[in-house]
Amino acid sequence: MRVIETELPGVLLIEPDVYRDERGWFIESYSYKAFKQFGIDIVFVQDNHSYSKKRWTLRGIHFQNNPMAQSKLVRCTRGKILDVVVDLRKGSPTYKKWIMVELSEDNKRMLFIPKGFGHAFLTLTDDVEVQYKVDEYYSKEYDRSIRWNDPEISIDWPVKDPILSEKDRNAPFLKDSDCNFIYRGEIP
């Protein structure tokens, strides 16, 4: 397994070892022991699985406010996506900065996203499945979104008119959000 630090401290790109033979392939997609060696010492409590029928479907920017904030381990198991992470911690040196990483069934990469960050993804193919682990249960009360095309964040999406849910279409801009993440000098 190879772990690559990104421009956002605490956000890690993970490339698992892939064992291939004439039958196909095998990866170890999660091991508490292995992840702990790379500083990911959390307990995941819920697995989520989403399916998007059409290319250019955009989901996000999503997060849960404190005290129900979630760390996520995201992977694309069918198709291909652009996965986006945004630092939403007020006072952080990388506040409002974002990264974009391609995750696909072919590259088998995963992205670890700590608490304090927003998450979104755009499908690059039809029939996309994304699976992710979280370390806090879903909470409707603390569930939040920020508008996908917020000018303060300025994500460089490769599509101008994505397929959106009503929730994402009507999400507030960051300036109108009640996002409660505060940077306290720590690396997540």
Automatic annotation (TrEMBL):
Q: Where is this site: Participates in a stacking interaction with the thymidine ring of dTDP-4-oxo-6-deoxyglucose?
A: 138
Isomerase: present as a keyword of the record? yes
Question: A GO molecular-function term, please?
Answer: dTDP-4-dehydrorhamnose 3,5-epimerase activity
Enzyme kind, highest EC tier:
isomerase
Tell me the subunit arrangement: Homodimer.
Q: Which family does it belong to?
A: Belongs to the dTDP-4-dehydrorhamnose 3,5-epimerase family.
What is the official name of this protein in its record?
A: dTDP-4-dehydrorhamnose 3,5-epimerase
**Protein source organism:** Fervidobacterium pennivorans
Organism lineage reads as: Bacteria, Thermotogati, Thermotogota, Thermotogae, Thermotogales
Annotated gene? rfbC
